């Protein structure tokens, strides 16, 4: 299964003009993947019509909802952005609730919980996010922060006087762009600056969950990995141009990942300087959506050489530890 996932991923990042360079196994899957993409396109169209025509009821939560999502699978900086927004809200005295599906054992949910342990952020995990939200509201209470949200966020680093309100004031919908059962007040769309559209095909023939035209629903676009783009002025401008051809008024921001430290797996609270790996041979082991960015970020720190062992997104690597320890 891991090999098949790798093959499909390789096809998804290969432009049509270079398909002939792929191995025979990869090319033999193209008709099947193209058929599956056509079925996916139709199901997406049907689902969209059901929701946006009102035939399927959308629910409004009693607090503002910020959706953080993407157009392509993995590697868009979605989860770090969710954490960033949660911290911003917490510092402004607004209690955030993060709603996430909890893919593959909830690895991202566990990471968010660990990172946000000292904040007022709550994390609700479950496929039925409306039911999860209702349960969290009942347990922790909620307060509609619509009237004070803009005022509090205008000076987020101003100290909050008095005890913090522990009630939930805002919901952050992790991976929310294609989750239409909940109405969104703010739609933030993350784009991978190194591969914004992939090969321009929908899943599973390509990495697109929706076509770029879906950006008409966005309120904010963030181009992630902007610091890793080879020719920033040209490539970032091209992405921004595509975005503004869809909506000329859409604000576009850039983001990057800045490694602050390493930690030991058995001791998550340990802190090792990034300079630790300088002039060393490093093996990057990952199970994330876009491992290229991870390897590039490590390379920028200055190791002597970087080797890679890339698993598919959310792959549970416990069984493989003995293999890459050799």
Protein model, in words:
By secondary structure, this protein is α/β, with parallel strands linked by helices. It folds into 2 domains: 65-254, Rossmann fold (3-Layer(aba) Sandwich), CATH 3.40.50; 262-324, no CATH class. It contains 10 helices and 11 strands. It has helices at 2-12, 24-28, 30-52, 78-91, 107-115, 129-140, 146-153, 232-246, 291-301, 321-324; strands at residues 65-70, 95-100, 122-125, 168-174, 186-192, 220-224, 252-254, 262-264, 267-272, 281-286, 305-310. The strands form 3 sheets. Strands 3-2-4-1-5-6-7 form a 7-stranded parallel β-sheet, with helices on both faces. A two-stranded antiparallel ribbon has the order 8-9. The chain has a two-stranded parallel ribbon with strand order 10-11. Helix 8 (232-246) links the parallel strand 6 (220-224) and strand 7. The model has no long low-confidence stretch (mean pLDDT 91). Pathway: Glycolipid biosynthesis; lipid IV(A) biosynthesis; lipid IV(A) from (3R)-3-hydroxytetradecanoyl-[acyl-carrier-protein] and UDP-N-acetyl-alpha-D-glucosamine: step 6/6. It is an enzyme of class 2 (transferase). Its EC number is 2.7.1.130.
